[in-house]
Amino acid sequence: MVEGFVGSKQWDVTVNGFPNHAGTTPMDQRRDALYAASQYVQAVHEIGKHTPGRQVATVGKIQSFPGAPNVVPGLVNASLEIRDLDAKKMDFIFNLIKRKSMDIGQKTWTKFHFEPTINIVPQLTDSNIRTIINQSENHSYYIDPSNINNNNPDQKNAIRIRGSFLLAGPLLARKKSVVLPSPGGDRIGLRPVQTHLSALEKLGTRIKLNDKGFYEMETDGLKGAEIYLDEASVMATENSIMAAVTAQGRTNIYNAACEPHVQGLCNFLVQLGAKIDGIGSNLLIIEGVTELSGGEYTIQPDHTEVGSFIGLAAVTGSELRVKNAGINYLRMTRLMFEKLGVEVKVEGDDIIIPKKQKLTVQRDIPGGIPKIDDAPWPGFPADLTSIMTVVATQCDGAVLIFEKMFESRLFWVDKLIEMGAQIILCDPHRVVVSGPTTLKGARVSSPDIRAGMALLIAALGANGITEIHNIDQIDRGYESIDVRLNALGAKIRRVND
């Protein structure tokens, strides 16, 4: 049984020595970087092994330069990764390794430098809700929920993220009660949970607020019902689905959200034994089953992330191939990018964005300013309006960005204006962007996931250095984004405050 999600810290390690001809440099005069690195590898292994605890420490990469058989190595590039459930313990292990490396450097006349690259904070699981989660290979997990023995998630963690409210449906179905705080997440406008509550009440849930303002929900047993969602909320639809699949009888969900991730959830549940008709439409018909079985499922590509990479390539003038992009989920996204003159080529399930495109706004006939506006699926995703705003700054012409779904999402554009963008904020929902403009580096802060990614794209296309703070927001939606973009040629350095 795992007590939480293990944290991971990674560093790029450089060992500097001095290259000399092997035949003319005595052994006691060599500044051999590879020799020093070999001692470093051994030190990492020994410290990781013999320090009390369950931590792991790994050197997974090592490269020696110049790499000639008759030259004493003058430079070594290596890595370091430390994993543990305790962030302080990881820091302790790192300091041991660093001190040992400095000692090695003094003895071998070399210098060690550690550059942090990844910092994934460990997340402890509530001691009352334990699940066996084993990572079998990269991005693959084995999950066994048989040991869930409590219906009250950790309130401090639950209040931090929006997704915590998705525990309502499953725990009501499994434990018949749950207590949840109001969820956290991005502050992009009013995000009430009444649609969730109304749907769960229809299924037979009693709900009240306690003296802490938490939602106390309980049921004597969920029963199928006619559910009319007052808005096509993705999360409310997902909560309704998860509660209904094991409810007694039939449930019809009208005005259901049908975004790709809702379809993915339905397909996953069907694979586990659920009976769901109408997947991909706004009417879901669910016949309750007595239980679900285990199964294996591959998550579909993230259409929002793919759209973000299209915007990145367009702004930076780079050629980029996105493999396994999920073409079927990109029709409206590609159409909106075409309005800005962005060409996207398709090869199988891959997309290719050609380099150095001439970005020109495609004016409406007979010459009006075009509009890019979001809508529930299959409309243009709201999560990509921030990305499109940045792309528009680099296009010849003017375009109206109309964000209809969240009244505070566009307030971040003041940060783009600081970077030199020509943007008029008409009201909380509409901005007019004129371009092209030369962006310049600035010191900005990420207000939410998508605006943070948009600022990162702007920074990569801007002149000078940009500092982006509150990057935890970006990390929530884009895994190891700095590492991946650096692999493409970006120059991003993560700095711990």
Q: What would you say this structure looks like, in words?
A:
The protein has 497 residues and is of the alpha+beta class. It has 3 domains: 4-123, Alpha-Beta Plaits (2-Layer Sandwich); 148-287, Alpha-beta prism (UDP-n-acetylglucosamine1-carboxyvinyl-transferase, Chain); 303-487, Enolpyruvate transferase domain (UDP-n-acetylglucosamine1-carboxyvinyl-transferase, Chain). Helix content is 30%, strand content 25%. The protein contains 14 helices and 27 strands. The strands form 9 sheets. Strands 2, 4, 5, 7 and 8 form a 5-stranded antiparallel β-sheet that branches. A 4-stranded mixed β-sheet has the order 15-16-18-17, with helices on one face. Helix 12 links the parallel strand 26 (443-445) and strand 27 (467-469). Helix 6 (234-244) runs parallel beside helix 7.
